[in-house]
Specification:
alpha+beta; 5-stranded antiparallel beta sheet; 14% strand
Length: 771
């Protein structure tokens, strides 16, 4: 190994050791991160298990609250109230009254599986009513629905005669008749509530709801299926309510040893973790036993993945380290060989490789400075070449342009400016030495004059009798710059003519907004100069002035599409602005010929015809009217008349589109109002529910409803609820708590606050005012 290591060069060994050290640092950090990830994964699994158990608890509690709410709603049923409050009729069994009550129970429909089996015991008639039939003797009902471990007399004393307040009987099997002589046994929990509510001493009736254990236990089955553990629920006294994945005897052992701490996690001694939470609603305890091995599944996956990636990264890192060490040391060795051969030095005499390279590089730097000095002598030629490339658009990116500008020392002030070209008039072809010399002197005079005009102006020769220039805009407005440039150039033309009798013609391009747009501006300047030479003009000729006589009309496809979109949206102001812009561009900024004017008008008419063919109007007869209006626009009409006719078309189209949108919104608002009046008693009636029913976004529903009614949907729901509550208060048949539940409030406190906010008085005061 020592021999193999010594075969490599010292530079290679230094590089490789450095890479190995760098490679070990992330490996150490990765191991620490791995250990942390294992702990986090275990904690996350426990938290997920606790969340699953808590979710099952919350769903069970919510269903139990719905059962309680159901019994309260049933307690205020008028038919039931008459049966327990009115004296007995001549018919001691009151077949008609009990039958009507039984039929009304079939109207109580719910998606809650907990309400699939319930009964009402009416003490006044010693009868039991279910949604399916009436039992005129309680023993008949008990024969069809017998609870395990209770005789009829015990069931009668503990269930029918004893007062109950939101009471839960522990889990018992009950035998239920599903059809004649056919019975099934099902574990169930029984919810009991005496009527009238809060009648502790003398209940007149009792509601019992038999809750199937399967319906409650299915909410905890996920823990058993996911982790292979068990789950159970016990009441406040420790009686078993339901269980999944565990025997009854073992479940009772855990319920007897349950702790009062909420969210407790502790080992059970059999390789499981016991998770326990307690309900604040009814004091029930929810437990789950999760195998620790199942919780560590994610941690084991992390361990396998981390180990695989670590070993793979280490192996790849070693390979990369060898490759990089070889590549970098090879370059250093190559440099050493070059310098050694140039200086005729043997390998043994080099000594320290880096000192040797440093000395030779210092010599290179000194030679480079000499080269730089030579380049500075050629800098004027480089500057002139840079300006020519700028004018011809030879730079494809702004970064390249800035880099060459920095290299040549040509400053680029600001971002805007104008390009131009100047021609010395009065000379024919440069076919003699005297003319060439005179033109050289003339160009020198003009270039000096341009430099005096603006120090930052970029100037270069463009042929024997032409000079190109770029004038940047300083920190001033474009119109101010244009006036100052025109004044300076006119002064230059006059001064050169007076002092040297040189006639000058200047072509100016449009202003550019970025330095990579100089070529476009210079191209326009050349066109302006050609036009000036062709017409014999002297002085300044701008591109826009030269092109007015041959201009085309302005109507790009983007403007047409924008106009179509604004017309479809009914945006009158924006469409009118676009039309004004088109007329300004074509008839104020341009001098269109008669043919160009006709073509522009025909294009604009075509746009409106496209819109008419799409049939977007509220009134279908308007389509033919719009087409007639478009056909009536003549290309021979005056500009003002054309503007007026197209403006009338825009106004008619936008008004019809707005009317169509308004009618559609009115229908939607009507549907919202009907839905609120139908569902105001639902405490879960929110803006989200309304938007879900209508099929529109919440923000859109709220804004549209506010525009049409002047109030928010939530405020309107409150007004409807309080209005109905006012009617019930005046009838004086229900308590305030009952009215609050009936009009959709979860608590009487929130109902009282809302009532006082809307009516200005409390519900009790409002009822007294009605009396």
């Amino acid at each position: 190994m020592q021999r193999l290591w010594s075969k490599f060069s010292p530079v290679f060994r230094r590089f490789l050791i450095s890479y190995l050290i760098v490679l070990l640092i992330p490996q150490i950090a990765g191991y620490a991160s791995y250990r942390t990830s294992i702990e986090v994964a275990k904690a996350s699994s426990i938290e997920n298990s606790l969340s699953s158990l808590n979710l099952g608890k919350e769903i069970i509690e919510r269903h139990l609250v719905e059962v309680e709410t159901f019994t309260k709603q049933l307690a205020i049923n008028q038919d039931l109230y008459r049966l327990i409050a009115d004296p007995k009729p001549l018919d001691s069994n009151n077949v008609y009254g009990l039958g009507r009550m039984q039929r009304s129970l079939s109207m109580y429909s719910s998606t809650n599986d907990y309400l699939s089996n319930f009964f009402i015991y009416i003490r006044n008639y010693n009868a039991i009513i279910t949604p399916n039939t009436v039992y005129y003797r309680p023993e008949h009902y008990y024969e069809a629905n017998r609870l395990e471990g209770l005789t009829f007399e015990e069931w009668k004393e503990t269930v029918l005669k004893k007062p109950h307040l939101n009471e839960m009987m522990p889990l018992k099997k009950y035998r239920r008749e599903i059809r004649d002589t056919v019975f099934v046994e099902t574990p169930a929990v029984t919810f009991l509530q005496s009527i009238p509510l809060n009648s502790f001493n003398n209940p007149q009736a009792m509601i019992g709801v038999l809750i199937d254990e399967d319906h409650m236990g299915s909410l905890l089955q996920n823990i058993v299926d996911q982790y292979g553990g068990w789950a159970l629920v016990a009441d406040r006294e420790g009686s078993l309510i339901l269980s999944r994945g565990i025997g009854e005897e073992e479940a009772k052992r855990f319920t007897a040893a349950s702790s009062d701490e909420n969210g407790e996690v502790s080992p059970t001694g059999d390789g499981r973790l016991l998770i326990s939470i307690r309900s604040d609603l009814n004091g029930w305890t929810y437990m789950a036993g999760i195998p620790e091995q199942a919780l560590m599944t994610k941690a084991g996956r992390i361990q396998r993945v981390t180990t695989t990636f670590t070993l793979t990264a280490l192996f790849i890192g070693l390979l990369i380290g060898l490759v990089l060490a070889y590549r970098h040391s090879a370059k250093v060795q190559s440099l050493l060989s070059v310098f050694r051969e140039q200086n005729h030095i043997s390998r043994e005499k080099i000594g320290n490789e880096y000192d040797f390279l440093a000395g030779n590089i210092a010599a290179l730097i000194a030679n480079n400075k000499l080269l730089e000095s030579s380049l500075n002598d050629q800098l004027p030629l480089l500057r002139d070449a840079f300006i020519k490339r700028l004018l011809t658009g030879d730079f494809y990116t702004l970064r390249e342009l800035e880099a060459v500008s920095s290299q040549t020392g040509v400053p680029l002030r600001g971002e805007q400016g104008r390009a131009g070209i100047l021609k010395v008039a009065g000379y024919g072809s440069a076919d003699s030495e005297e003319i060439i010399q005179e033109l050289s002197v003339a160009r020198l005079i003009v270039r000096q004059a341009l430099s005096r005009l603006e120090p930052d102006v970029l100037v270069t020769d463009w042929g024997s009798d032409q000079i190109a220039f770029v004038h940047p805009i300083a920190e001033e407005a474009l119109d101010v710059f244009t006036r100052r440039l025109d004044a300076g150039l006119l002064e230059l033309v006059d001064a050169v003519y007076r002092q040297h009798r040189l006639s000058i013609t200047i072509g100016l391009g449009s202003a550019f907004e970025a330095w990579n747009g100089v070529a476009d501006s210079f191209n326009e300047a050349q066109q302006a100069l050609e036009y000036a030479v062709h017409t014999g003009a002297v002085g300044i000729t701008r591109f826009e002035d030269a092109m007015k006589a041959t201009e085309l009309y302005y109507y790009p496809i983007e403007s047409e599409q924008r106009m179509l979109n604004t017309l479809k949206a009914g945006e009158l102001e924006e469409t009118s602005r676009l039309l004004d812009q088109l007329f300004s561009r074509n008839f104020e900024e341009r001098e269109l010929s008669y043919d160009m004017t006709q073509q522009f008008v025909m294009e604009l008419k075509g746009t409106f015809l496209k819109l008419a063919e799409q049939r977007i109007f509220h009134d279908e007869s308007l389509t033919d009217h719009i087409k007639e209006q478009i056909a009536a626009v003549a290309t021979t009409d005056g500009i003002d008349q054309l503007r007026e006719r197209f403006g009338q078309l825009i106004q008619e189209i936008c008004m019809d589109v707005r009317k169509k949108k308004c009618d559609m919104h009115a229908e939607t608002v009507g549907e919202i109002i009907r839905y609120i009046h139908e569902r105001y008693s639902d405490a879960e009636l929110t803006l989200y529910r309304i938007a879900e029913h209508i099929g529109k976004p919440e923000k859109y529903i709220s804004q549209m409803f506010k525009e049409h009614t002047g109030t928010n949907p939530s405020d309107y729901v409150e007004l409807v609820r309080i209005g109905k509550a006012g009617e019930l208060l005046q009838q004086n048949l229900l308590t305030i708590d009952e009215i609050a539940a009936q009009v959709g409030y979860n608590s009487a406190h929130s109902f009282r606050r809302a009532f006082k906010r809307v009516r200005g008085v409390s519900p009790s005061t409002f009822r007294q005012m009605g009396d």
